[in-house]
């Protein structure tokens, strides 16, 4: 009966020296990564909704300023460079982790975190500058959609940095265990996902926004 129950629940059965059956539950191989991919797909739906909203409201200026009047492309290009380079440095961290080099893994995570913080600082400056100019989210449908889309992405980057800092200390305490490597892989997927979303934001919102 124990063997039948174990086969149903997905556990493994072992017989100890006393003759009793012991059911050992195990973590499904690649189960975490599969679950995380499902989460990313749900996140794609959130951003797809925000992009659709911006597509509808992107020209609803209500007599207020337009993207061409507000957006500073050199500053946004610099911010884009911060995030894209951070994706590269995270790749270096993963290479170091695969080589079991803990020191280099943590070093590249620090560089990635600094670049992520730089990205957030520029974005906060941009938001403050727009609000100071009277172009806050309540000014028009265009600005409401803009702040919702770009702000949601910035919130994701904030969560990513908190996760990165947490993992940095976990690596320092426990090292490159299989569990920590799995967490690092999930964070890598999340970080590259945010970079991909930002490329669409930069193109769809900023570049197309400065067109007449």
Description:
The chain is mainly alpha-helical and 212 residues long. The protein has a domain at 73-210: Four Helix Bundle (Hemerythrin (Met), subunit A). It has 7 helices and 2 strands, in the order H-E-E-H-H-H-H-H-H. Strands 1-2 form a two-stranded antiparallel sheet. Helix 2 (31-57) runs antiparallel to helix 6 (141-174) and helix 4 runs antiparallel to helix 7. The radius of gyration is 23 Å and the shape is elongated. The termini are far apart. Mean pLDDT is 88; it is low at 1-17.
Please specify the SSE layout and strand pairing.
Blueprint: H1 2-9, E1 12-15, E2 21-24, H2 31-57, H3 67-70, H4 73-98, H5 102-132, H6 141-174, H7 178-209
Antiparallel strand pairs: 1-2
Helix pairs in contact: 2-6, 2-7, 4-5, 4-7, 5-6, 6-7
GO molecular function: cytochrome bo3 ubiquinol oxidase activity; cytochrome-c oxidase activity
Subunit structure: Heterooctamer of two A chains, two B chains, two C chains and two D chains.
Transmembrane segments: 34-56, 76-95, 107-125, 145-169, 189-209
Strand order of the largest sheet: 1-2
Query: What's the N-to-C terminus distance?
Result: 74 Å
Radius of gyration: 23 Å
SSE arrangement, N to C: HEEHHHHHH
CATH architecture of the domain at 73-210: Up-down Bundle
Number of distinct beta strands: 2
Structure classification:
mainly alpha
CATH topology of the domain at 73-210: Four Helix Bundle (Hemerythrin (Met), subunit A)
Biggest sheet statistics: 2 strands, antiparallel
Rounded mean pLDDT is 88
How many helices? The count is: 7
Give the amount of beta strand, in percent. under 5%
Q: Which stretches are low in confidence, meaning pLDDT under 50 for 5 or more residues running?
A: 1-17
CATH homolog superfamily of the domain at 73-210: Cytochrome c oxidase, subunit III, four-helix bundle
Helix content: over 70%
Per CATH, the class of the domain at 73-210 reads Mainly Alpha
Label the overall shape.
Answer: elongated
């Amino acid at each position: 009966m124990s063997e039948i129950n174990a086969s149903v629940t997905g556990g493994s059965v072992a017989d100890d020296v006393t003759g009793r059956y012991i059911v050992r539950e195990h973590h499904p191989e690649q189960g975490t990564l599969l679950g995380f991919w499902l989460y990313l797909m749900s996140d794609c739906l959130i951003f797809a909704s925000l992009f659709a909203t911006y597509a509808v409201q992107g020209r609803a200026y209500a007599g207020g300023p337009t993207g061409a009047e507000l957006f500073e492309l050199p500053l946004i290009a610099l911010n884009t460079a911060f995030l894209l380079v951070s994706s590269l440095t995270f790749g270096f961290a993963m290479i170091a982790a695969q080589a079991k080099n803990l020191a280099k893994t943590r070093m590249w995570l620090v560089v990635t975190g600094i670049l992520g913080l730089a990205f957030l600082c520029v974005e906060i400056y941009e938001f403050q500058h727009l609000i100071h100019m009277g172009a806050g989210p309540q000014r028009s449908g265009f600005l409401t959609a803009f702040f919702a889309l770009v702000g949601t992405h910035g919130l994701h980057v904030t969560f990513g940095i908190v996760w990165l800092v947490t993992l940095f200390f976990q690596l320092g305490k426990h090292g490159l265990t299989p569990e920590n490597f799995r967490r690092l892989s999930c964070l890598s997927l999340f970080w590259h996902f945010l970079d991909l979303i930002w490329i669409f934001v930069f193109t769809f919102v900023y570049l197309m926004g400065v067109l007449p």
